[in-house]
Design brief:
The structure is a homodimer of 337-residue chains. Chain A has 337 residues and is an alpha/beta fold. Helix content of chain A is 43%, strand content 20%. Chain A has 2 domains: 196 residues, 3-Layer(aba) Sandwich (Isopropylmalate Dehydrogenase); 131 residues, Isopropylmalate Dehydrogenase, CATH 3.40.718. At the A-B interface, helix 4, strand 6, strand 7, helix 6 and helix 7 of A face helix 4, strand 6, strand 7, helix 6 and helix 7 of B. Chains A, B: Pfam families: Iso_dh.
């Protein structure tokens, strides 16, 4: 029995959460993998109701759970997710980008993953105004850089792919901070002689993600560059409809879609739950590995293939050219699990 | 008579410079617009020969010229271009991205320009190491933000387009620095009631540049985001083969291609000079406006249309699917001017 904390979020968050709950309950009932779900509040609504975007009870419940799923949050997103990433030391933000059949990717042979450092860089929130000027501190540490580099190489080692790690930075301009990051990655690469290591400036990477996305395997980069490049790479493989993310630490992990709260389509039962459900698949993998529970991994694979088979046969939501509502698409998944 | 200083650069720089000189000489001879060209050294070669990537004589010559053209520079690029931008207060980095016929753009109706703040942000070079950590200062000032915002709105006003300015930032995370930038842009927008103003987070922009690039007109952003997004947008319209840039200040301007020194193809007479020559077209525009010299503007238009007509009829370099060498392509241009 796994205890899953679920932040239901804002905008389309509650609809996606309903979809996720229904899928988890189906897994519980049909596939004999047991879950207990605790829904939690955080985000714009929590802020207006309790004065806090991230209420203490929410944090406490998350800490007591085995893993957290977080639906998208609105304007107060940073107060929820950036805080949680740092508080729970979820240092690796994992964002796969893969061409799936029947999705409008720029090419059909893309299979990469961005490993984004998730605890420092300009996200530490140290900013000051000095009269008419303002300054933000960009912090890069050797320890965090080595830790994420190691995560990236381990990821490359486990993937069934070209075994390459591309370290993306801007050390020609930020010689000390990105110099430190690049050196940490290069140092760690020595422990992985079978894995190709390359470096690329962030501007060149933004270009190459369009020019030859199939040449990337694992990309490791600092927090803000990872933010930008992962949104870009999601679009390279056809959009945020199928873009999951995992925030992983040594002892805990949190799973969320890359996309936001999409207030413009909220409450209409048309949002695509796939990104959130693919992040559930990442959770099942993580739980399986952590608890040595092969059942979790199997169920995760089943969930993923169910989603793809549906999409492949044209059973899909409006954003990717289908006509299914959120709940209809979810029901197709639960029926097919 | 205009005095043009020309940094010949590294890698493919000298070949592109030869092409540029030949075109300027042809304009001088055939079109009766007079130029004197002073070639200057800066970059890797200057560094190894003189110990300085940007020799003092080069700076002095640039200052005495009417405008500067800079071919790409190698590993020491930052020591040349970032220093020149700040030293000469070339605060606006203008990077158009346009779908041209017969270029592999993602769509054929893209016509945007990125107006990148060019003097501050993480480019100020204030970095420190603190034991195992390092810190870079990201400086944003209200004055520089307002100045670039004004430039962006003036650009939108003069363009024959949808009259929209999109301010790109990450104020949900960098509340103070990007908050200041966003507010400066919003404040300036009030002076331009006829121009639509919108804001977009940088991650969303990286995505939307692929998803709906035709919806952008003028994008205004901070230095590093502008670096990343302009390389991306060049690729969105088919690559760096046709991507010029202008670094513009109140009294002086410097023109360069967006691409780098491309050492891998240097010395082979295969580089595409179009980006550099289109930056010459931007120079002709700038000179024409500054000196109220309509001849410059006419010649610039002629240069641009000559390049496009050649590309359209398949007369092009290898990188964009043709078979012409750098010198052959240049000769076609000079013959047709
Ligand atoms: C909401 C925002 C703070 C967040 C980030 O920048 O990390 C989001 O864009 C993401 O990528 O998860
Ligand atoms: C060479 C480098 C310092 C430069 C920059 O980052 O500004 C380049 O990428 C550019 O965009 O002109």
């Amino acid at each position: 029995m796994y205890n899953i904390s679920l932040i239901t979020g804002d905008g389309i968050g509650p609809e996606l959460s309903e979809s996720a709950i229904s899928v988890l309950n189906t897994i519980h009932d049909k596939l004999d993998l047991k879950f207990e779900i605790t829904t939690l509040s955080a985000g714009d609504q929590a802020l207006s109701e309790t004065g806090k975007a991230l209420p203490d009870e929410t944090v406490e419940s998350i800490k007591q759970s085995d893993a957290c799923m977080k639906a998208p949050v609105g304007e107060s997103a940073a107060d929820v997710i950036v805080v949680l990433r740092r508080m729970l030391d979820l240092y690796a933000n994992i964002r796969p980008a893969k061409s799936y059949p029947h999705m409008p990717a720029l090419r059909d042979d893309i299979d990469m993953v961005i490993v984004r450092e998730n605890t420092e860089d300009l996200y530490i929130g140290k900013e000051f105004s000095l009269g008419d000027s303002s300054v933000a501190l960009r912090i890069i540490s050797e320890a965090a850089s080595k830790r994420i580099a190691k995560y990236a190489f381990e990821t490359a080692k486990q993937r069934d792919s070209m075994r390459k790690v591309t370290c993306v930075h801007k050390s020609n301009v930020m010689r000390i901070t990105d110099g430190m990051f690049a050196k940490a990655c290069a140092d760690v690469s020595k422990d992985y002689p079978d894995i190709t290591f390359e470096e690329m400036y962030v501007d060149a990477c933004a270009m190459n993600l369009i020019r030859q996305p199939e040449q990337f395997d694992v990309v490791v980069t600092t927090n803000l560059f990872g933010d930008i490049l992962s949104d870009e790479s999601s679009q390279v493989v056809g959009g945020l409809g199928m873009a999951p993310a995992a925030n992983i630490g040594d002892n805990f992990a949190l799973f969320e879609p890359v996309h936001g709260a999409a207030f413009d389509i909220a409450g209409q039962n048309i949002a695509n739950p796939s990104s959130f459900l693919l992040s559930m698949k990442m959770m099942l993998d993580w739980l399986g590995n952590k608890h040595n529970d092969s059942k979790c991994i199997e169920v995760g694979q089943k969930l993923e293939s169910t989603i793809f088979n549906l999409v492949k046969t044209g059973v899909k939501t409006k954003d990717i050219g289908g006509d299914k509502s959120t709940s209809e698409f979810t029901k197709q998944i639960t029926d097919n699990l």
